[in-house]
Amino acid sequence: MRLEPIANPSLARRIGFPAAALGATIVTASLLAMIAGADPFKILGLIVKGAAGSKFAALETLNRATPLIFTGLAIAVAFRAKLWNIGAEAQLYAGAIVAVLLGTGAIGSPFVLPVTAIAAMLVGALVLLGPVLLKTRLGVDEVVTTLLLNFIMLLFVSYLLEGPLKDPMGMGWPKSTALVKEARLPRIVDGLRLHWGFGLALIAACIVWVIQKRTTLGFEMRAVGANQGAARFAGMPVNTVLIQSALLSGGLAALAGWSEVAGLKGHLSLDLSPGFGYSGIIVAMLAMLNALGVIIAALFVAGIFVGSDSMSRAADVPTYIADMLLALSLLFMVLAVLLARFRVVRG
Amino acid sequence: MSELFDILVSAGFWAAVIRIASPLIFATIGELICERAGVLNLGIEGIMVIGAFTGWLAVYQGMPLWAGVGVAMGAGMLFGLLHATLTVPFGLSQHVVGLGITLLATSTSSFAYRLVLPEVTSPPKIEPFQPLPIPFLSDIPVLGEALFSQTALTYLAFGVAILVAWVLFRTPLGLALRATGENPSAVEAQGLSVTGIRMGAVILGSGLMAVGGAFLTLSAFSSFYFEMVNGRGWICVALVVFGAWRPGKAVLGAILFAAFDALQIRLQQTPIGALLPYQIFLMAPYFMSILALILMSRRAEVPASLMVPYNKGER
Amino acid sequence: MSERRHEAGEVVLRLQGITKRFGALTANSDINLTLRQGEILALLGENGAGKTTLMNILFGHYVADEGRVEVFGRPLPPGNPRAALAAGIGMVHQHFTLADNLSVMDNIRLGTEPLFSRGRSRTSVRGQIEQLSRDFGLAVHPDARVGNLSVGERQRVEILKALYRKARILILDEPTAVLTPQESDALFKTLRKATELGLSIVFISHKLHEVMAIAGRCIVLRHGRVVGEVFTDATDRAKLAAMMVGGEVAMPKAEPREAGPVLLQLEQVTTPDKGASPWLKRVDLALRRGQIVGLAGVSGNGQTAIADLVSGLARPASGRLIVSDKPVDQWSPRQALGHGIARIPEDRHKTGTIADFTLTENAVLERYTNPEFSRAGWMNWRAAEAFARNIITKYDVRCPGPDSRIRLLSGGNMQKLILGRVLEPGPQIILANQPVRGLDVGAIAYIHAQLIAARNAGAAVLLISEDLDEITSLADVIHVLSEGRLSPGFPRSSKTPAELGLWMAGQGFERVEHAA
Predict the structure, then answer these.
(1) Which domains are present in chain C?
(2) B238 in helix, strand or coil?
(3) CB atoms A216 and C22 under 8 Å
């Protein structure tokens, strides 16, 4: 078999294949539910209900989507420039650490929020700067280095929580002291459990979209990602562009950790992120690396997580079904996107 | 310093080194086969998890230990088939597919584990492989205990490494594999199927990765934990680079790495260990892998077509 | 003469009604062809006529939509290179299919033994290769690493690959494109010897004099169809040319002209060794206003190094690069653009354009920081699109529109867009690296005419080409590159192709070096 590019893929093709990918994911979900001994239709209903069936559920989904938008954007920015940042998890924790370091009384109001946000972005950017400099200077592949930094960062957080940042009132649980009130992100609407982190995530997505579409930096990032040789020949500063992408990506991922601490949890703990850095890859790929698409994809992924949690409690199907479905949807979707643009031909 | 010396000359230390190295050898050789054919397999981390889980599950359900190894290998090959189908004939991004496979294999293990054992909090144990001292050789002082009193799976790891090295450099199959990773059109022009060779390599390599995972449950720890692979797969990707895509050097790298890992565990119990937070020691293996990548970055000869999909239409 | 006809030889290969379509394009249309035992059949046609496609069908890389192939009277299963090899077909591809990390011997034996076996002993394989090398005059060391071989040596390995498999039919796709005239002669000798030993050969080319020299019979392809079949002793070059192109195409001629002052100069330039491409050795080169300087030589002898220097990708390790009378210290592609250097890269697909970008994006790829197209980091896409539209009209780029992806364009139209992109700003200096490689005659004539026009308007042009005919017809001054050394400049028509060929092979440099 051979793949042949299609000059002008029809709308049906461009929508049909991704839709089929979604369908295949749902079919697999049903099969998994049956394996777990549950009624597939009931399970799917429970997931949807758990994700959006009530005001509480919907808000929970929006809250869960917030860090996913940030990490999804981080991955989208990096992958667009073909910079394989798999270390969003580490950058996320870096942002969370900064939120705690500066938010527990080190800085007085009213600047504490913007200062911690900017500091978190800077530190997150620095965490990714190392692997990128190794890549541009020495040609060290960034996939493995960023991946390994995730493990190092978690150990570092563990050290901080047992040492310098330990909450003396923690009763043995490894968690940090709580943020002061001024360092907390306020709720968007009083009484509703949704913090401003979500609003900031939406704004961040719009900013990234504008950068991608309208600025010379976005043009450079796309060119470097699509064909580094041609970009270099055309006079683009390839290494600088990679570093700029890395700084932006690391900063965005750090905001995810910052907003989780400042908006949701109020303190740092080792279970702050159930793999938001990795789920961000799924979000970014489902969004086809489009910044506005990241919002929708993050809502979808968050919905699956939140819905599965609640379904799991109701129907006794392991909650890990959510991770399986998302991994499958990622694989189905990349295949669907390919088939939307290429035809499989014989010989 | 004398503590360090005592550790380095103890037979127990070197026995531990070989034990720690064994799963890494399986997985590193598996990854090496994939990469020699031109496919980066980032599914390795998840495939090790699925190998650890299925191997354990089979034995837990009453199958013999070797059947567990076989089941793990089969499960790994299945995920390898999925990886190969998406990355070879369809030529999808090896980064994205590999990470997707890792996420899928990891979550499948967790999902299935919870299906089998919904309520259990402490993971049930199985009867693992027992040390199999080799007659006479195991009686050699120090060396005997370190090298020849291991489990059968450890001997198998070294056997596999030697076999793969021999196949790679001494047989037509190995020649075809090395050529595929360098220039697939050369292989196609000589009447061989690039797709077939690449898919075969990824499937077989994934099988070995899964056996590496199964080593953890069937030989090292005797039960399954969710986090047990803990980045070993990624370390093996680094070890392939460190070993310059050669099985012998990769095995040496794995042993070096294992020695370092065993050392940090023992150093934690010494007075030096009391001075530093234990996390520093746990970080060391990861830093060591990064360092290995940096050291080898300019020296190794990367297969020229690694990560380059082959599409007959674009010649 | 009659011995070249081989009327009596049995038919070893027969293609019947071969048709192959790629999407809307019909690459081969109802092609019939027979090859007889012991003959050399030329397949003549310009770039894009469908020669390579036809041979890829024969070899099983592609599957024909219609038609059949018979080898030694037996039908050949389609789409299976293994079957083609087993039937005795050996193919020397235009782009060599060798693994650089392996030895010559390993490349040759690859795929000849069952995968799941021990394989033959090295000694016996080596012995057989050495025997074949002697028999056919193909000198190459079996244990040499292919990555270290010259282009000519690589080609010998390719031929040995086919001979080692006992091929009875040899197909060579543009085999002389990468050789010096002397190496071509040696190749022809090998081919004649092969026919004496009973092999039959298909020789694919677009060079008329070669076809006349080597082939007995010639089949001419145009737009994917067979437009003529002639014996070479019953025709002449003019008739073949007319058949190949379908009438007269007036190739533009560069009239001699007085050259102006030097605009760009390499002075005793050396570059560091970068893997396979040899470093430059104390190269002196001057580009003058209103002059085309041609750089001849077999590729891989330093062309890339010189092109990289001029285009800003590399800096001299020692010696000076002087642009507009000033030695440059800062040097990058952007600096080169700033000095008014237009750069047509060697590989338009990989370095000249970004396949998934639109024509508009590709048009401004190297000028997007210009105030015309962006201010303070903000792109002005409207201006960019207007610029692209202007190029499309002015340079006759056939495309659906400025918003379509450039990957959908033919090579010629892609090259025209690049040409428009670099010529629009009115450059002082033009680097044209293999500007017409792979293009059809119409596009070649157009691009040559544009280069000549730019020269006449006062630009200094550096033309790099493997095609000696292109160099001799366009260049006012010719330099030859061989292993990183640059010959003195020879004025137009002062050297014959054979003399230039000797320089390409490295002869003549010693005398210059002694004199210096």
Answers:
(1) 1-88+169-248 (3.40.50.300), 98-167 (no CATH), 257-340+429-516 (3.40.50.300), 353-425 (no CATH)
(2) helix
(3) no
